[in-house]
Design goal:
The protein has helices at 2-21, 23-40, 42-47, 49-76, 82-113, 141-148, 153-158, 162-179, 184-205, 208-223, 232-256, 261-267, 269-278, 285-295, 299-312, 315-331, 338-351, 361-373, 388-413, 419-428, 436-440. By secondary structure, it is mainly alpha-helical. The radius of gyration is 23 Å and the shape is globular. InterPro entries: Na-dicarboxylate_symporter, Na-dicarboxylate_symporter_CS, Na:dicarbo_symporter_sf.
Length: 448
C-alpha cells in the first residue's frame, strides 16, 4: 500500500516541480501574489514599484544589443541585398493596412456602443493639471526624423533609442554584406556576440516573475477598485474589442497561413504574460526574437520586422486611440460627424508613427490628436488618466501578438519560413533552439 502511494505521489510531485520551473507559471503565480498584496497591504504594494522598474531597466539594457546583433547578422548573411528592401517595404505596407483596420474597428465599436454617453461631463469642471506633462509632448514629423539620426554611430548601439539603433544596424549590415570576405571576421564576431547577448537575455527573463509581482502589486494598491466604477463600461468594452480583434482579425490571418493562433499563443505564453503584467512591449522584444527564430522564420525577416513592428505596428494602440477619442467626445457631449472622425483617423495614422519608443506613447498620440483636431478639450484626457494603465493591458497584448503574426506573414511572403517546423513547434508547444549558424544562414531559394 505504501509503495503504491509512493509510486503515485512521485509523478504528481515531478509534474508539480516541472510546472514550477516553467517561466509562464512563475509569472502567473507572481501576478496572483501581487494582486493579493495590493489588495491586503496597499502601502507595501506601492513600495514594490521598484521591482518592476528594475526589471524593465534590465530588459531595456539588452534590447538595443539584440536589435543590433540580429539585424546586422541577418542582412550581412543575405545573398541578395534587394531582399532587405523587399522585406522592409512589405512590412511597412502590412503595418499601415493593419493600423488602419484597427482604428476603423475602434471607431465602429465606439459609435455603436457609445461608452461615453450619459456621463454628461461639463468641460469647465475638468482639471487639466491631472493630465501628465508627457501628454503635452506632441509628436511631430521632424521630431520623428530626428529620432532616427543618432548623435554618433557607436552611440546608437550603446543608447536606448530603438529606431536609431535599427537604422544604424541596417546600415552596418549592408556595409558588411558589400565588404564581402574582408568583413567576414567582423561578421563572425557579431554572431558570437549574438550568442552571448541571448544568454544574458535568458538570465534577465528569469527575473520576470519579480517584475510582474511588483507591477501588479503597485497597480492594485495605487488605483484599487474605486477608480474603476465610473469607467468600467469603457474597460469592459475595450477588453471585449481586443478579444474579438485577436480571434477575428489575427485568427483569420493565421488561418490564411495555415497555422493555429491558439498554438502561437501557447508557444508565446511566457512573453505574453510578461507583457501583460509589465505593460511593456519592449520587455519581451529580445525573447520574442529568439522564439520566432525557433519557430522557423529566417533571421533577416525576424531582424527587420520585429524591431520595426514594435515601432510602427501597434494595432492594440490603434484600437485604443479611436475608442478613447470618441469616449472623450461623448463624455463631454460633443457629437463628431463621420467626416471629423475620418480626419481624426488620418491624424492618428501620422502621429502614431512619431511616438515609437516613447513611454506612454499611445496617450501622447491621443493628446496630439485631440489638440490637432481641436474638437475635444485637452483637459478631457483627465477622465481616463486613472484607467489608462488598465487599458494598456489590451494594447500591449495585441501589440506583441500582432507583431508575431506579422513576422509569420512576411516570412511566408518572402519564402523564408519553415511552415512544417512551425506546425511541429506549435503542436508540441516547444522546440529545441536551432544552432546559431543556421539562424544566420539564408535559406536556399529564399530569393526565388
Amino acid at each position: 500500500m505504501t509503495r503504491a502511494t509512493t509510486a503515485v505521489g512521485r509523478p504528481q510531485r515531478s509534474r508539480l516541480n516541472r510546472l514550477l520551473r516553467e517561466l509562464w507559471f512563475q509569472v502567473v503565480l507572481a501576478a496572483v501574489l501581487g494582486i493579493v498584496v495590493g489588495v491586503l497591504a496597499p502601502g507595501f504594494g506601492e513600495d514594490l514599484k521598484p521591482l518592476n522598474d528594475w526589471f524593465i531597466a534590465l530588459v531595456k539594457m539588452i534590447v538595443v544589443p539584440v536589435v543590433f546583433c540580429v539585424v546586422t547578422t541577418g542582412i550581412a548573411s543575405m545573398d541578395n541585398l534587394r531582399k532587405a528592401g523587399r522585406i522592409g517595404v512589405k512590412a511597412i505596407g502590412y503595418f499601415l493596412v493593419l493600423s488602419l483596420v484597427s482604428m476603423l474597428i475602434g471607431l465602429v465599436v465606439a459609435n455603436i456602443f457609445q461608452p461615453g454617453s450619459g456621463l454628461n461631463v461639463d468641460p469647465s469642471t475638468l482639471n487639466a493639471d491631472d493630465v501628465p506633462e508627457t501628454a503635452t509632448e506632441h509628436a511631430t514629423f521632424t521630431g520623428f526624423v530626428s529620432s532616427l539620426i543618432p548623435s554618433s554611430l557607436l552611440g546608437a548601439i550603446t543608447g536606448d533609442a530603438i529606431l536609431a539603433a535599427l537604422m544604424v544596424s541596417i546600415v552596418f549590415g549592408v556595409a558588411l554584406n558589400m565588404a564581402g570576405e574582408d568583413a567576414a571576421p567582423l561578421t563572425r564576431g557579431i554572431r558570437a556576440l549574438s550568442d552571448v547577448v541571448f544568454r544574458i537575455v535568458g538570465w534577465v527573463m528569469r527575473l520576470a516573475p519579480l517584475g510582474t509581482f511588483g507591477a501588479l502589486a503597485t497597480v492594485v494598491a495605487t488605483y484599487g477598485a474605486e477608480s474603476l466604477k465610473q469607467l468600467a463600461y469603457l474597460i469592459v468594452l475595450f477588453t471585449a474589442t481586443c478579444v474579438l480583434y485577436v480571434l477575428v482579425v489575427l485568427g483569420a490571418i493565421m488561418r490564411a497561413c495555415r497555422l493555429s493562433l491558439f498554438g502561437l499563443m501557447r508557444f508565446l505564453k511566457a512573453e505574453l504574460l510578461v507583457a501583460l503584467s509589465t505593460c511593456s512591449s519592449e520587455a519581451v522584444l529580445p525573447q520574442l526574437v529568439r522564439k520566432l527564430e525557433i519557430l522557423g522564420i529566417g533571421r533577416p525577416v525576424v531582424g527587420i520586422v520585429i524591431p520595426s513592428g514594435f515601432s510602427f505596428n501597434l494595432d492594440g494602440s490603434a484600437v485604443y486611440l479611436t475608442m478613447a477619442s470618441l469616449f472623450l467626445a461623448q463624455a463631454v457631449g460633443i457629437d463628431l460627424s463621420w467626416q471629423q472622425q475620418l480626419v481624426m483617423v488620418g491624424v492618428m495614422m501620422l502621429t502614431s508613427k512619431g511616438t515609437a519608443g516613447i513611454a506612454g506613447g499611445a496617450f501622447i498620440v491621443l493628446a496630439s490628436t485631440v489638440t490637432a483636431v481641436g474638437h475635444i478639450p485637452l483637459a478631457a484626457l483627465s477622465l481616463i488618466v486613472g484607467v489608462d494603465r488598465i487599458l494598456n493591458e489590451g494594447r500591449v497584448f495585441i501589440n506583441v501578438l500582432g507583431n508575431a503574426v506579422a513576422t509569420i506573414v512576411i516570412g511566408t511572403w518572402e519564402n523564408d519560413f519553415d511552415a512544417d517546423r512551425a506546425r511541429s513547434v506549435l503542436h508540441s508547444g516547444a522546440a529545441p533552439e536551432p544552432p546559431s549558424k543556421s539562424a544566420d544562414t539564408p535559406k536556399v531559394g529564399a530569393d526565388t
